Amino acid sequence: MNEATQVEQSLENLGVESLDVLTLHHTDFGPRDQYLQEARETLEALRDLGRVKALGMRAPNRLVAGTASGDRNQVTAARFAFLVQQFGPKVIATPFNPLIQSPESEAADSEEDEDIFSFACRHGIATVIYKPLGLGLLTGKYLPDTVFGPGDVRSRISAPVLDAVQRGLQPLRDRFGPTPQDLARVALHYCLKRCPDSIVLTGFSSSQQVAVNYQSFKNELSEPDYEFVAAAYSALRAELIELGQLRLRDAASVPCIPGSSRPVHVPEER
After folding, report:
1. Cα end-to-end distance, the chain, whole Å
2. ∠193-198-201 over CA atoms, to 5°?
3. How many CB atoms are located within 10 Å of the residue 14 CB?
């Protein structure tokens, strides 16, 4: 099934006439980019036909100035800039949440390294943050004895990690409220504070969760509240790093989930 057929199937499944954004999820177009031109022409045709309103690209959390290490989550700035020129995306999607080191405080391998938010701003492209709740971990719903369903990517998260997350979230519960909605509000505000020009895309399993998320934005965090939140998340990241379950530069956004070629079910965050 080619890209055009997949888009038509998506439109039928969703019951809509066009997709607001179609996102490219990787930067591999075969040896010497042999499939790049075909991909670009297909996407341009879909856009010209009105089946896709805007093109998006998925990017790593950091673009390196030198040579990439071979990690598929790492792309050189020159390579990504070339692809941006080729496809002209209106949106760049990237994972970010409080379990990921913040863009402006992350230590770079080189002074020339650039985070994706700065890159997008410099090129006049919007950014979309996904996984802002760390697949739901940051809502505090999952206890150390939680059993996830077969194929759920979170089933590989160990009980000590879940326990550490629960402890790390307790100061936030004490200050902002004990419910998953209270903790979701804090995490979403944290993401928007760190990346104020971004759109935050969060999963949901009910219309009530959507309404609660919108309502939460009417009650912003004060500067002292934000400093408290940042310190609490920093302490949580430090504990997960000490447990060996989180890497500072990991863009996977969820601890204790190593890379895997096996297909897994990625659940809604909430």
Report:
1. 32
2. 100
3. 10
